Amino acid sequence: MLRGFKNFLMRGDVIVVAVGLVTALAFSTLIKAFTDSVINPVIARLQGGKSVGLGWQLGDQGNTSTYLNIGSFISALIYFVIFMAVIYFLIVVPYKYTQRRRGAEVFGEPGPLKTCPECLAEDIPEAARKCRYCGSDQPRTSEPPRTA
Asked: Which Pfam families did the record assign (predicted)?
């Protein structure tokens, strides 16, 4: 039973992605609570006075629909950075380590690139036989590019 569970966790398919998504959503709730309970009050306090947040009132005083809340935007930005760091360090890094131990490289550096002589696209893989954008035949890497 544990061997089957281990094999389930080590597979690199849609099921593992689904498990990662559920984990990410759980961390999302935790990080949202942190930004709402800790970051937002700090940002609101930076405004000073009796302000409801860091921002400006664009219309009538007290109308929340015309309040430009910069504090909420900063909070959302902090939330995004923390969330992506959690995803990277708790999901991507262990996945890369596990796949590397199995002999597969994921999220690695891209291979060498070349420029298409026809459409001048600069992101064609060096081993490509045809351009992904214009469909022209690509010279072999040992051949110099043909000139018109």
From this structure: MscL
